[in-house]
């Protein structure tokens, strides 16, 4: 469900294209101001990426972060690897997020 995501369609398409290219197996959650109604034109896009095993994503994640940095997306995309986040922050994200990419089922 991405209807709560406040992101222009063209930017969302660019983000989703990079996600499919670099981390097709990961479930990706958007959270923060772009889903809670507090965003403005310059707000960043906060993403949490969850591997199917909930283990660190490794090199594909690093490559994705670099791809976001080098892209023409005119907003800052802040990607975090779920496995590397403190449990308290995971709980906060889990309470309010939008699934941007489904990923594979957990093994």
TrEMBL record:
It comes from Caldilineaceae bacterium SB0662_bin_9. GO terms for molecular function: transferase activity. The keyword Transferase applies. Signal peptide: none annotated. Pfam families: MTPAP-like_central. This is Nucleotidyltransferase domain-containing protein. It comes from the Bacteria. Keywords: Transferase. The keyword Transferase applies. InterPro entries: MTPAP-like_central, NT_sf. Gene3D superfamilies: Beta Polymerase, domain 2 (3.30.460.10). Residues 9-55 form the Poly(A) RNA polymerase mitochondrial-like central palm domain. SUPFAM superfamilies: Nucleotidyltransferase.
